[in-house]
Structures are given as C-alpha cells and as structure tokens.
Design brief:
- By secondary structure, the chain is an alpha/beta fold.
- It folds into 2 domains: 49 residues, Helicase, Ruva Protein, domain 3 (Orthogonal Bundle); 130 residues, Dna Topoisomerase Vi A Subunit, Chain: A, domain 2 (3-Layer(aba) Sandwich).
- Strands 4-3-5-6-7 form a 5-stranded mixed beta sheet. The chain has a two-stranded antiparallel ribbon with strand order 1-2.
- Helix 7 links the parallel strand 5 and strand 6.
- Helix 1 packs across helix 2.
- The longest helix is centred in the N-terminal third of the chain and has 17 residues.
- The protein starts with 6 loop residues before the first helix and ends with a strand.
- May play a role in DNA repair. It seems to be involved in an RecBC-independent recombinational process of DNA repair. It may act with RecF and RecO.
- Belongs to the RecR family.
- This is Recombination protein RecR.
- Keywords: DNA damage, DNA recombination, DNA repair, Metal-binding, Zinc, Zinc-finger.
C-alpha cells in the first residue's frame, strides 16, 4: 500500500478495492467519505455488514438469498407454483423482481457451467431443480440465463434434463451476447419474459 495513506486508511482503501467494480480512485473516494461521516453512521454500516454476513444464507427450496430457512418468495401464497424461473444467481432474481411482471417461483443455480473455471453441473443446484420440476404441479420452466458462452452451455444442459418433465422455455433477449441480466433495464427484461419461446 502506498505511503500516501496512513496505515489504517490504507487498509480501508485496500479492503474497499476488493469489492466488484471498485477501482483505486473509487475506493479512495469511499474511504475518505466514510472518515467524514459521524462515528454512529460508520458503526451502523459496520454492523449492517456483519449482520448480513452472519444472517443471510440460502433458501432451502430455491437457493435465493434469505435470512429465513425458506425465502419470502417461496413462502408467498400469491405466487404461481406452476412456473419456475431458473437463473444463475440471486442478482438475476432481484433484476427480474424489479420488472413486477413475473409472478411464479424461482430456482437459483448458484453459477454457470464453466469447465475452464472447474465448474461442472455437480457444483450447481441442478439435482434439487430436477426434484422440484418432477412435481406434477409444475407446468413450465423458464430458463432466464444470460447469453454468454457459459450461459448457453448451462441453458442447453439444464433444458435437456428438464424436458422429460415439463414445458421448457427460454426468455427472449434484447441483450447482446455476453450481456448480464442484472444490468438490463426493467422494460427489456419484461419484454424478454413476455417473448419467451420453447427451448429447442
């Protein structure tokens, strides 16, 4: 760490830089901002970080982030149990929920198949998905996975496994190849859900 920072400030900048999308300048700006805030605010931030890390786990049904054994979406009585939307991770659930268009349930795979990174189907929540989809009340699975090389591989693999049990569709994309669901605007995502088509 550069000598331009006193050691505690340097450590703070270093830790902030570990966050995704935070470069050296942003980390410095955040660190200096934190130092200017009242101690009570900084304590509240630190406490929120610790509590989130300690209390947030995965839903035992859909594997979305949850502070309870079963998440709010899975417990909601007004959600459609016949449709399951499969996504790569919780960021995608959050993005799709912001559209207010989808009223079914979710299943979070926990990543994408990527042999280059040593991630195979066994590292993902595929088997629990098959178990859920084999239930007679499930009439459709929507694959909402970003259109990257790994995303396409995962979509085709999961789709083939689920086809014997139910109708499998994939969302239409107004996204470029390699685009991420979480960065798409709500209108694009809503149209992608409406324009979904059968997986070939």
């Amino acid at each position: 760490m550069s000598t331009v920072y006193t050691r505690p400030l340097g450590r703070l900048v270093e830790q902030l830089q570990r966050l995704p999308g935070v470069g050296p300048k942003t980390a410095q700006r955040l660190a200096l901002h934190i130092l200017k805030r009242p101690e009570s605010e900084v304590q509240a931030l630190a406490q929120a970080l610790i509590e989130a890390k300690q209390q947030v786990g995965l839903c035992s049904v859909c594997f979305h982030l949850s502070a309870e054994p079963i998440c709010d979406i899975c417990r909601a009585p007004n959600r459609d149990n016949s449709v399951i939307c499969v996504v790569a991770d919780s960021r995608d659930v959050i993005a799709l929920e912001k559209t207010r268009e989808y009223r079914g349930k979710y299943h979070v795979l926990g990543g994408l198949i990527s042999p280059m990174d040593g991630v195979g189907p066994d590292q993902l929540h595929v088997q629990p998905l098959i178990k859920r989809v084999s239930q007679p009340q499930v009439t459709e699975v929507i694959l909402a996975i970003s259109p990257s090389v790994e995303g396409e591989t995962t979509t085709l693999y999961v789709g083939q496994l689920l086809k014997p049990f139910t109708r499998v569709t994939r969302i239409a994309f107004g996204l470029p190849m390699g685009g991420d669901l979480e960065y798409a605007d709500e209108v694009t995502l809503a149209r992608a859900l409406e324009g979904r088509r059968e997986l070939e």
